[in-house]
Design goal:
- By secondary structure, the protein is α+β, with helices and mostly antiparallel strands.
- The chain is about 25% helix and about 40% strand.
- The protein is built from four helices and twelve strands, in the order E-H-E-H-E-E-E-E-H-H-E-E-E-E-E-E.
- The strands form two sheets. The chain has a six-stranded antiparallel sheet with strand order 1-2-6-5-4-3, covered by helices on one side.
- Helix 2 runs antiparallel to helix 3.
Amino acid sequence: EIMTTVIGLTGSSEAENGGNSQVKALLKSLDEIRNGGLDTAEAIEEAVGVSPKIKWVNDLYHNDRKVAGILAESCVSGTKRYIILGIGINLSTESFPADLTIKAGSLGAASVTKEAKRALALDLFGRLLTLLESEDTSRAMQIYRERSTVIGKRVSFMQNGAEITATALDVADLGALIVKLDSGETLELSTGEISIFVQKEQI
């Protein structure tokens, strides 16, 4: 049995949230967390007409700027384990604090109505349900790789307190990022954050 419910939805107007749309889903099982980013990207493309790319693991980028983020939090109630998946999408905000201007961006969808935002949230939730009920993730991983903004790029990450630079080669079937170090060694990163080098900047 799969128990799911939308436990929160904001984004009823720009005045209330600065042009953001937020969705939270309480899920009993979500083994393929990375596919939440893929579902979000496809829902955005359907609703807004913009095709965002995925920065490993689940950040979405458009024009080299972050436009959506996904956080997963595990919680336990009695003997049951749940995952709270929080998804935030920046539809139209164009003004950001100074420390975010290099990284943050918008989908440029200022005209999106309250009803359209809710339709986007419901479409996304439906995609998550389909993901949970599907046993075949091979097709999803193929599309994930096609939407990746990381593969082939120079990246950096922290390892044992030191910053390491490498080239992203691929995303493994189970979601790990495969990178090649400057020494020629190949590693698989299963957790953590990476930065991408774009014209001598990092995003």
